[in-house]
């Protein structure tokens, strides 16, 4: 690992100023960053720790959630508000990496990392979550899916940080997230599928098989008004397998992942239809 300077700003404005300098990189939990630095993928001359910033916590308002970017995944998993308002999120967190990682990794860091194998981006995208991003010119908002440009590539500027994530109330919507792992349950997935049903309409995102969280627009069109129709669900699975670009990796071949999409989309729709409000 290359030598680096560690900066620990106490305010958001100070952190943004430091990040604007050449060679600087933010560090929240650091679980992925440290591994990539050891592998020589990243070689920052300065790490800007975000641990002293007041950006953690979960707050609820009429079923909607506001999550600070520095909230750990474990704190999110154990939140009573999350369990009450978004049980699908709590369930997904239980098999996200392992408890040692969840104790340290943060929500904002997990989103900004832009690894397509992460579980939260497709699920939060399907739920309609938005992020607030702070920069030198002030704040801007964006849907979670807009954070991603491609494999391990986010759309944040060098001197921008995610400060919070907001989820609209689930209401009468029903949601499910399923993933297929080729080894243990907490391994990186070969495919992740998030489905949110509202009446007879579906919002569907996949990840891991694609280079970023990807919305299945064609599949959604087929399912419109027919989320209970087995024939439509099968047709949607076929359309989903063809509408996304998939490449082989160590988790499976492209052909294998296409078949996973067909199978897991149907399973996720079934699970969402049977979800408890």
In a few lines, what is going on in this structure?
With 277 residues, the protein is α+β, with helices and mostly antiparallel strands. The chain folds into 2 domains: 110 residues, 2-Layer Sandwich (Uridine Diphospho-n-acetylenolpyruvylglucosamine Reductase, domain 3), CATH 3.30.465.10; 100 residues, Enolase-like, domain 1, CATH 3.30.390. It contains 11 helices and 14 strands.
Structure description:
The chain is α+β, with helices and mostly antiparallel strands and 277 residues long. It folds into two domains: 58-167, 2-Layer Sandwich (Uridine Diphospho-n-acetylenolpyruvylglucosamine Reductase, domain 3), CATH 3.30.465; 174-273, CO dehydrogenase flavoprotein, C-terminal domain (Enolase-like, domain 1, 2-Layer Sandwich), CATH 3.30.390. Helices cover 34% and strands 26% of the residues. It has eleven helices and 14 strands. The protein has helices spanning 12-19, 31-38, 73-78, 80-85, 87-94, 99-102, 107-113, 120-126, 217-223, 230-243, 254-273; strands at residues 5-7, 24-27, 46-49, 58-61, 64-68, 130-135, 138-143, 148-150, 153-154, 161-167, 174-181, 189-198, 201-207, 214-215. A five-stranded antiparallel sheet has the order 4-5-10-6-7. A hairpin with a 2-residue loop joins strand 8 and strand 9 (153-154). Helix 9 runs antiparallel to helix 10. The longest helix is centred in the C-terminal third of the chain and has 20 residues, at 254-273. The chain is globular. The model has no long low-confidence stretch (mean pLDDT 95).
């Amino acid at each position: 690992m290359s030598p680096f300077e560690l900066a620990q700003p106490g305010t958001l404005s100070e952190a943004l100023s430091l990040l604007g300098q050449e060679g600087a990189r933010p560090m929240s939990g650091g679980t992925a960053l440290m591994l990539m630095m050891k592998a020589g993928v990243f070689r920052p001359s300065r790490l800007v720790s975000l641990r002293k910033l007041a950006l953690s916590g979960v707050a609820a308002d009429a079923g909607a959630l506001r999550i600070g970017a520095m909230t750990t995944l474990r704190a999110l998993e154990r939140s009573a508000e999350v369990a009450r308002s978004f049980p699908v999120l709590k369930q997904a967190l239980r098999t996200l990496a392992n408890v040692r990682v969840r104790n340290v990794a943060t929500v904002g860091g997990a989103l900004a990392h832009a690894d397509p194998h992460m579980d939260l981006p497709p699920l939060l995208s399907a739920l309609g979550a938005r992020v607030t991003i702070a920069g030198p010119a002030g704040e801007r908002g964006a849907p979670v899916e807009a954070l991603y440009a491609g494999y391990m590539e986010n759309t944040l500027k060098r001197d921008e940080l995610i400060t919070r994530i907001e989820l609209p109330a689930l209401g009468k919507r029903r949601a499910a997230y399923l993933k297929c792992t080729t080894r243990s349950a907490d391994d990186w997935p070969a495919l992740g599928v998030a489905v949110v049903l509202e009446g007879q309409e579906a919002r569907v995102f996949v990840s891991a098989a694609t280079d970023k969280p990807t919305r299945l627009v064609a599949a959604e069109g087929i399912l419109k008004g027919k989320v209970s129709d087995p024939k439509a669900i099968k047709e949607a699975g076929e359309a989903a397998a063809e509408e996304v670009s998939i490449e082989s990796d160590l988790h499976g071949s492209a052909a294998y992942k296409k078949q996973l999409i067909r199978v897991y989309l149907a399973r996720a729709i079934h699970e969402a239809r049977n979800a408890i409000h």
